[in-house]
Amino acid sequence: KWSSVNSPLFLPLIPPRAPGFTAVVLTYDRVESLFRVITEISKVPSLAKLLVVWNNQNKSPPEESLWPKVGVPLKVVRTKENKLSNRFFPYDEIETEAVLAIDDDIIMLTSDELQFGYEVWREFPDRLVGYPGRLHLWDHEMGKWKYESEWTNEVSMVLTGAAFYHKYFNYLYTYKMPGDIKNWVDAHMNCEDIAMNFLVANITGKAPIKVTPRKKFKCPECTAIDGLSLDQTHMVERSECINKFASVFGTMPLKVVEHRADPVLYKDDFPEKLKSFPNIGSL
């Protein structure tokens, strides 16, 4: 199967023929938040399918009658092990070229923001196109790379908690990831998003594209202890990831850019009905 997959990187850069995108939501047991995410994503015009990756082996997904009613196919796949890399497995259920990877607690992205992100991805199908921007920096004192989540003018990564990419990268991540990176990610339950950024940048030589001004993504009530990223050691580990991955790749593939894609009229004082994407959130 893998040998029959075509790389999108050397094709003419025109929007793919396959209409729409597949939203892949990785979840463990935050059912209430998951259902809110599904409800919001289902409003996006170009959504073709919802795929929920159920990563909890000790608990069954809710029964079918409890799930939100959506106008597109909704599939739940159950994983054999609780691994972060499960979010990037090339599931047969993904039939579109475009994939939206989204966390089960990203509930504030509007349908306009998501639709606009998809339209940008169609113009740049070889890039990671997403919302949470991050940066890597060289720490001269320590003599190593550092992960930076402060708001800056620059980005070198977009996090796959909310990002579009070509499904081809699922195959690369699963079958062609260099060294022991995939095992490291699964053992540490961290950095699968950084690994995907390294992979795409290394293959394409290009930076990701951050879309829309929004920088806050977690819902206020989701700051419970169950969030992985709230742990302080989580941030330290993410700097470790960058150094680890750079050594495995033998280079630093991430590219820094000062660029963001926004709808042309989104800040202009025009009647809303003249704007394709009137509901673009603020910071």
Automatic annotation (TrEMBL):
Residues 21-266 form the Glycosyl transferase domain. It is found in: Endoplasmic reticulum membrane. It is a single-pass type II membrane protein. SUPFAM superfamilies: Nucleotide-diphospho-sugar transferases. Keywords: Disulfide bond, Membrane, Transferase. The keyword DNA-binding does not apply. Pfam families: Glyco_transf_64. Transmembrane segments: none annotated. Its main location: endoplasmic reticulum. Gene3D superfamilies: Spore Coat Polysaccharide Biosynthesis Protein SpsA, Chain A. Belongs to the glycosyltransferase 47 family. This is Exostosin-2. The lineage of its organism: Eukaryota, Metazoa, Chordata, Craniata, Vertebrata. The gene is EXT2_2.
